[in-house]
Amino acid sequence: MSFALEAAQVSKAYGTVHALDGLTLNIPRGGIFGILGPNGAGKSTLFRIVLGLVRPTTGETRLLGAPAGDIRALRRIGAVIETPRFLPWLTGRDTLRMLALESGMKTPDIAGWLDRVGLTEAADRKVNGYSVGMKQRLALAAALLTRPEVLILDEPTSGMDPAGILEMRALMRELADRDGVTIILASHQLDEVQRVCDAVAILDRGKLVADGRVDTLTAVNEQLRLLASPLDKVLELLGARGKADGADAVLAAIPRAEAPALIAGLVKAKIEITEARWIGGDLEKVFLSHTGETDAG
Fold first, then answer.
1. Which residues in the chain show pLDDT less than 50?
2. Of these four, 31, 172, 221, 287, which has the most CB atoms within 10 Å of its CB?
3. What 3-state class would DSSP assign to 62?
């Protein structure tokens, strides 16, 4: 397996403060990977180290198999770390033109990327009139100009309204699924992370405390809620694995793999099923169980 990002026993100390503490993490290429953790867990520090902006106290990181800061690897990376800043007197279009020239690009698809991030109508407005969310979009367009293989994003939906968040989610999925870009992101939005990410790592006090596929991590808390009748017959068939949820529903504590057989068995027993859906399997519960925090920042 090839990896987009590798960290081996990485520590970073600022005086007596340990931003990272012996972190070992391997992020495979492909898909969308989320990095979560309370404020000060080390997410932004990890990004800065792998991009060669900060040196670790101990340990080693690699991007696309190359050591941190390797110029050839960095040319294959796009990144937006923390709040983006631009020259306020330039328009969005001119900002991308300037960055393209600095990167040595001869035929950058500026109009195409402005369109994909939703800034076509604002392309010729000065950046000092952009909202925080619009600046996030412009930063993403700038990171994508070189058509990177890996995209690193720190709080990509910061300052966006709900419609903007939906658009950003769709764009990230499109970049991963259609364009083949590996996306590594940190976000406060646990619900959005669960919706968009394939896998996550949870950091706490600079250490890795959990990682894996989102569906696997959240399956621990899931239950199948069945609207069915007669209810007493459903409870009888489920036994200890079922309990009533109100007057017309049952919660079944079963793994997802057993759901098709259960539903088939209920139908065979002449039980009428109106609805079957999974509930309770959310990333917030997983996060809280490993960090005790309510903030994923």
1. 294-297
2. 287
3. strand
